Amino acid sequence: MAEFNKMSEMVIAGDFAGVKALTQKMIDDQVDPISIINDGLMPGMNVVGVRFKAGDMFVPEVMMSAKAMAAGIELVKPLIAESNMPTAGKVLVGTVKGDLHDIGKKLVNMMLESAGFQIIDLGVDIAPAKFVEAVKEHKPDVVGMSALLTTTMLSMKDTIDALKEEGLRDRVKVIIGGAPVTQSFAEQIGADGYAPDAAAATDLCKQLTAN
Amino acid sequence: MLIIGELINTSRKAIREAVENKDGEYIKQIAKAQFEAGANYIDVNCGTRVYDEVEIMEWLVNLVQEAVEAPLCIDSPNPLAIEKGLSLAKYGQPMINSITAEKERYEQILPLVQKYKAKVVALCMDDTGMPETADDRMRVVRTLHQNLTAAGVPEDDIYFDPLVKPVSTGDNAGLEVLETVDLITKQYPNVHKVCGLSNISYGLPNRKVLNQLFMVQTMTMGMDSYILDPLDKTMMGFVYGSQALLGKDPYCMNYLTVHRNGLYA
Question: In CATH terms, is domain A89-210 a member of 3.40.50.1460?
Answer without folding.
Answer: no
